[in-house]
Amino acid sequence: DAGVIQSPRHEVTEMGQEVTLRCKPISGHNSLFWYRQTMMRGLELLIYFNNNVPIDDSGMPEDRFSAKMPNASFSTLKIQPSEPRDSAVYFCASSLGAGFLSYEQYFGPGTRLTVT
Amino acid sequence: AQRVTQPEKLLSVFKGAPVELKCNYSYSGSPELFWYVQYSRQRLQLLLRHISRESIKGFTADLNKGETSFHLKKPFAQEEDSAMYYCALSGRSGGGADGLTFGKGTHLIIQP
User: Fold this and answer.
1) What average pLDDT does the segment A83-93 reach?
2) What's the mean pLDDT in B63-69?
3) Which of A3, A91, A104 sits opposite B46 (nearest CB)?
4) Mean pLDDT for chain A?
5) CA A112 to mean position of chain CA atoms
6) Nearest-by-Cβ selection for B101 from A45, A48, A50
7) Residue range B11-48, pLDDT digits in tens
8) Is the CB of residue A43 less than 8 Å away from at least one CB of chain B?
């Protein structure tokens, strides 16, 4: 198993452009999480899904950010329009989503976003 | 609101010396605590969780509810322990996964 897959690994874009980050969770996992990592704020939870349904999006910074999970094997995080302060590493993670062993989250390699 | 504090950004110890990475949390309910680790050029991964009371790679961590702490310890550090360590909290118990609140991490360097 390749684990959680994220694309692209690096993204450089200009302010005002739309950015779409993609994530493929581990097959069979029911929960998916988006995190953002910056030097100032560390790792922050943005949003998470259980069984493709958004459960908590209170960490989404503002309306410019949106996330979808159209099916169990794919999720997107979109920023429109992007701003320089969105520059960060964005991680996707997935977990089994139920029971004791659900709490281990498996992380993807991250997408490093730079907005100029 | 829940919060995780790791007071040390960087901790450097010599090989064979004891290691203690500090973690304090703030949460009004009964939390689940974890330690995640990121080795160089690898993904963030779970090291251990308090509920299973396990020892992984010689590391242990005890949840102290009175002091709201979950410090990570190892009696004899090894060079391969060099990594970023993150303490994390999940605020909901029971079935179903929940998002994690992370500390800012401690960079552990083991000197030969």
Assistant:
1) 97
2) 92
3) A104
4) 92
5) 12
6) A45
7) 999 999 999 999 999 988 778 899 999 999 899 999 99
8) yes
Measured distance CA(A113)–CA(A116) in Å, rounded:
10
User: B23 and B71 in contact (C-beta within 8 Å)?
Assistant: yes
DSSP lists the bridge partners of residue A91 as A35
Using CA atoms, how far apart are residues A85 and B54, in angstroms rounded to an integer?
40
Joined together, the tokens standing for residue A41 give: 């704020």
Determine, for residues B44 and A107 on separate chains, whether the beta-carbon distance falls below 8 Å.
yes
**pLDDT for position B55:** 85
Torsion of CA A62, B97, A3, A28, to 10 degrees: -120
Residues 6+ apart with CB under 8 A from A106: A3, A4, A26, A29, A93, A94, A95, B43, B45
d(CA A92, CA A72): 14
